[in-house]
Amino acid sequence: MIHHVSIEADDPMEVATVIAKLLGGTAREGFPFKHSCAAFSGDKYGTMVECWQRGKVVSIPKSGAGEFEISDSGTRQEYQAFHTALSVELDDDEIMAIAKDAGWATAVRGNGAFSVVEVWIENRLLFEVLSPTQTENYLRVMT
Questions:
Q1: Could you identify which of 41, 95, 101, 107 might form a hypothetical disulfide with 25, taking C-beta atoms 3.0 to 4.6 angstroms apart as the criterion?
Q2: Where is the domain boundary, 43, 77, 111?
């Protein structure tokens, strides 16, 4: 089970706030680090999406011990291979309305076995958001 993922955002608090709306949860600024924000689902699994300022990276401590190091990468990727699928309690129209209010692109896409609502976070990072019906179909195919 994945309990949280970390993503980059130009506006971490705005992104955390919108993701929290999709999850039916809350957003918190400065968590778990001063430069990041988080969207909490409030579910029994502690599902969270951590939103870091774009360009920040985590690395192994040079000393080999202690906490990881946070630094500036010096680069700003426009797109990336990372994406995730989130199950929510909203229908397609509600998902798309929340994303549209944020100015983000959306599309409903399917592969024949199941479909997802693509939500393009800040129009550059893909989240596949699944309504309850889409989640049922996904689980039927994937488990």
A1: 41
A2: 77
